[in-house]
UniProtKB/TrEMBL annotation:
Domain NOT2/NOT3/NOT5 C-terminal: 15-152
Coiled-coil blocks: none
Gene Ontology BP terms: regulation of DNA-templated transcription
Pfam families according to UniProt: NOT2_3_5_C
InterPro entries: CCR4-NOT_su2/3/5_C_sf, Not2/3/5, NOT2/3/5_C
Taxonomic superkingdom: Eukaryota
Name of the protein: NOT2/NOT3/NOT5 C-terminal domain-containing protein
């Protein structure tokens, strides 16, 4: 009976990880939205290393890596690099909030935890650049923040 239950659980888990049609699609190459005229000495194509997952893993180990990953996430939208950056951010306990379109990380253990939300102090990445009222593009602390789980982005999409 134990083996049968275990097999059913494994089949159920495998069902949720079925290959999708998009898994067989080729990776789209980067096409800039607003190309700028640059001198021939300036690189004209993106380096292939930027599509290597090992590059992003090594990058995340450096102090400047987090900012680089946030840059890739917000400025290389709908690319494989955005996916790789998000994957590394998640490995470092950053969680994406769909309502605020920003990344949060626990600053300390939540004070309140339920099935629907958790409340506590969080570090969040402020991606707003050039606002009159605040500097932006930095990490800030938000106290007494309620992180509702229904806004948590769990799936990474390539």
């Amino acid at each position: 009976m134990h083996n049968q239950l275990y097999n059913l659980q494994m089949l159920e888990a495998a069902y949720h990880k079925l290959p999708q049609p998009k898994d067989s699609e080729r990776v789209r190459t980067y096409i800039p939205r607003h190309p700028a005229a640059t001198p021939p000495s300036y690189p004209q194509v993106q380096l292939p290393v930027a599509s290597n997952p090992a590059f992003w893993e090594r990058l995340s180990m450096h102090s400047y890596g987090t900012d680089t990953m946030f840059f890739a996430f917000y400025y290389q939208q709908n690319t494989y690099q955005q996916y790789l950056a998000a994957k590394e951010l998640k490995k470092h306990s950053w969680r994406y909030h769909r309502k605020y379109n920003t990344w949060f990380q626990r600053h300390e253990q939540p004070k309140v935890t339920t099935d629907e939300y958790e409340q506590g102090t969080y570090v969040y990445f402020d991606f707003h650049v050039g606002n009159e009222d605040k500097q932006g593009w930095c990490q800030r602390i938000k106290t007494e923040f309620t992180f509702e789980y229904n806004y948590l982005e769990d799936e990474l999409i390539v």
